[in-house]
């Protein structure tokens, strides 16, 4: 039983069961300052039932509650404030962390159920830009968090390796490209052709028609179109893998759009058999009026398939292949209607598991307030950002700790970690403007700040030469340590919330808060003094190190022992 559940149980007993502990626990709040208690119960919710003013209810409750398990319980206005027993609470919390180590906070919400996560999904023949960062790192963090809570995540990189853009690229290559040029610098050259095509096609619309013909050739299995497609795909994957290695992100599947070419006929057949397809201006659509959605366009008038046709095939394939309990799509918020249509069409097809599909939307990264765009050429390459961030981390390490033994490795962990953490500390639906100088600072709400707090904890443990702890002697009642101990105790609740809300920022904000509270404790207490409390204080330091490292791991961020 955690401390919130303990408080809820005490209140329920004082109310003679009028509210269950489960009803109460969700209403418990945390006061803004510790002098108001560690947890509080607002009595407004009981005013109608008990026909009393909330402040009178609070006073009555405080008198009735069995205070044995608490330091004290007092009524303040309409709140019942609970003060936990600091020494015993600290000992219980620290013992759990030191015993469980990196398994601390783990829980079984998922019973091993499979959760495919559609994430990253860059388009072939285009370099990965900052625009691809969010889906990649949000999806990776959600996978880690779900794994911590008993699910079995399956990370799928649904590559954009099919579609009309390949017709445009082939046409552009045939007009301006050479094999030698592309071999020398594959991704950047292909991007250059793609951007030039869009600029020139505005004045020469016939180019779009030529591009459509090239894509039709590809769909029909034309030898030259297929050769170019395979070449573009192979070169792109080499480039992508370099960046994924930098980010520390691995995938279980790279099945992209092309994988579903032979799986769409079944989709169309089911739609026809259920009389769901209707003709509209030569195209075939599924009417979704009853869902207040526009019709889902399944086939164009020329017979070409669309993105939703492939997503329908992919959803059916994944259900059969993985027997998923949830299926997540970490895709930008601008695609919200697409996923509403996808679920609606699957429901119309008779698949009741459509309810297990969840779109995990996120906001944009902007640069100087402008949306990043490959077509317009306004693109910031992710590889360049990671390199610049690592360089900036190295400069700061040179200034702060020039004698650090493994500077190159640490600069990589700090630089890449800073970019990932900066993304994930933002609530995923929020957009944000990217500024590299702010991202790699060692102070403030940054990844390096959290990494540095953890490295400081490890440094203290090295100085004390402490690797084992007497768990019978870890009671701490130092007020300066209390907020740190309370923060440590909340880790399991934080992970549960992050998992149920698919929200990695909950973990990132928690890590910032824990680092901040630990730094305050370190600044106000003499931790390494040789006295009877040394074992307990170092147990606290080690616990902070364990939980900060695990928080960063869940976010996909490395945690160096020295910085």
UniProtKB/TrEMBL annotation:
Top-level division of the source organism's lineage: Bacteria
Principal EC category: ligase
GO MF term list: arginine-tRNA ligase activity
Keywords, ordered alphabetically: Aminoacyl-tRNA synthetase, ATP-binding, Cytoplasm, Ligase, Nucleotide-binding, Protein biosynthesis
The keyword Glycoprotein is assigned to this record: no
SUPFAM superfamilies hit by this protein: Anticodon-binding domain of a subclass of class I aminoacyl-tRNA synthetases (SSF47323), Arginyl-tRNA synthetase (ArgRS), N-terminal 'additional' domain (SSF55190), Nucleotidylyl transferase (SSF52374)
Subcellular location: Cytoplasm
EC nos: 6.1.1.19
Main location: cytoplasm
Motif placement: 'HIGH' region: 122-132
Domain DALR anticodon binding: 450-563
InterPro entries reported for this sequence: Arg-tRNA-ligase, Arg-tRNA-synth_N, Arg-tRNA-synth_N_sf, ArgRS_core, DALR_anticod-bd, Rossmann-like_a/b/a_fold, tRNAsynth_Ia_anticodon-bd
Pfam families recorded: Arg_tRNA_synt_N (PF03485), DALR_1 (PF05746), tRNA-synt_1d (PF00750)
Record field: catalytic activity: tRNA(Arg) + L-arginine + ATP = L-arginyl-tRNA(Arg) + AMP + diphosphate
Annotated ranges, domain Arginyl tRNA synthetase N-terminal: 5-84
Subunit structure: Monomer.
UniProt record similarity statement: Belongs to the class-I aminoacyl-tRNA synthetase family.
Protein name: Arginine--tRNA ligase
